[in-house]
Amino acid sequence: xxxxxxxxxxxxxxxxxxxxxxxxxxxxxxxxxxxxxxxxxxxxxxxxxxxxxxxxxxxxxxxxxxxxxxxxxxxxxxx
Length: 79
Fold this sequence. Notes:
Layout lengths: L2 H13 L7 E7 L2 E7 L5 H5 L4 H17 L3 E6 L1
Parallel strand pairs: 2-3
Antiparallel strand pairs: 1-2
């Protein structure tokens, strides 16, 4: 597990009510490393946040890591 995966997993596990249901997959798409997070259906709203603010904040963190490391990173929520 990379540091980015650990960061995303740590954030997701601490946001949800069912941390045992958090799933994280790393995918390669069009030159991007996409981190796909799956959660319990009851926790989907917590990961997305009000108006998508939480998901946007996670994407902002990944943008900062991406700029610093030179990697192209993305974040998706699995439904």
